[in-house]
């Protein structure tokens, strides 16, 4: 009895048999054709990755352009005194090939939501923004802000040439093993509605207090509070 599976894929078996015969009869030309075919396929795949890894491609989606990109244009990563500008892929797509492919495969979920119209209005986008932002922040924390460190690395920061408070905080962050996105949420996009931007500062102040770090390093002229003082 003929196998249904064999019948369904019989054409493929036949093609492979033909290739095997050609390889036995003409091994050198067959190897050359296979090599050239591999180059074309590999080159085409990388070309498609590069094509989909540009800012122009990212903002070709109307939702991205009017909600994300217009917001981004008002930040220091878009326009600054040095003229060094980050693009969408610089922050959201890894440089290394393996991680880049993984990110691109994950982006197929974004295409699904584009087709479904999950955030096709301003109101839908604003309602979804806290969830979307939290997902990006979580991903960046997981990778130790890998894409941030393509341009910024704390090991190469000069504390002496930074503003005093920034230098102190970066020095503390390095010692505490913190990552860029922990403190720099909202550096390239507006913070979503309902985000408590003071919660982090409260945590940092509490940690500094527990480790007995002098407040006057950042707050000049501030006297250290006496435990018996009444601040009411």
Written description of the protein model:
Helix content is 58%, strand content 0%. By secondary structure, the protein is mainly α. It has 2 domains: 16-51; 52-217, no CATH class. The chain is elongated.
Quick structural summary:
The protein is mainly α.
What is the number of domains?
2
Largest sheet: none
Tertiary shape: elongated
Could you give the order of the helices and strands? HHHHHHHHHHHH
Tell me what portion of residues adopts beta-strand conformation. Answer: under 5%
The strand count comes to 0
Number of helices: 12
- Quickly give the structural class: mainly alpha
Intertermini distance: 91 Å
Proportion of residues in helical segments: 55-70%
Low-confidence stretches: 225-232
What is the CA-atom radius of gyration, in angstroms?
A: 27 Å
Quick check: average pLDDT?
Answer: 84
Give short descriptive properties of this protein.
single chain; mainly alpha; 232 residues; disordered C terminus
Give me the secondary-structure topology.
Blueprint: H1 4-8, H2 10-25, H3 27-51, H4 55-58, H5 62-72, H6 88-92, H7 97-106, H8 108-116, H9 122-142, H10 164-176, H11 180-183, H12 199-210
């Amino acid at each position: 009895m003929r196998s249904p599976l064999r019948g369904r894929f019989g054409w493929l078996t036949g093609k492979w048999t033909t290739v095997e015969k050609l390889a036995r009869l003409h091994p050198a030309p067959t190897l050359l054709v296979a090599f050239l075919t591999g180059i074309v396929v590999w080159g085409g795949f990388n070309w498609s990755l590069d094509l989909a890894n540009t800012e122009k491609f990212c903002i070709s989606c109307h939702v991205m352009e009017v909600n994300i990109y217009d917001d981004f244009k008002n930040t220091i990563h878009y326009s600054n005194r040095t003229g060094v500008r980050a693009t969408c892929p610089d922050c959201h797509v890894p440089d290394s090939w393996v991680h880049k492919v993984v990110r691109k495969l994950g982006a197929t979920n974004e295409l699904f939501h584009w087709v479904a119209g999950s955030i096709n209005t301003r109101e839908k986008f604003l309602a979804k923004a806290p969830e979307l932002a939290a997902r990006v922040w979580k991903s960046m924390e997981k990778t130790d802000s890998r894409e941030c460190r393509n341009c910024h690395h704390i090991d190469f920061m000069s504390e002496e040439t930074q503003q005093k408070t920034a230098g102190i905080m970066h020095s503390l962050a390095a010692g505490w093993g913190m990552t860029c996105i922990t403190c720099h949420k909202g550096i390239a996009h507006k913070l979503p509605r309902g985000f408590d931007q003071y919660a982090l500062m409260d945590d940092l102040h509490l940690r500094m207090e527990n480790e007995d770090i002098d407040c006057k390093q950042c707050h000049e002229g501030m006297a250290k509070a006496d435990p018996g003082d009444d601040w009411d």
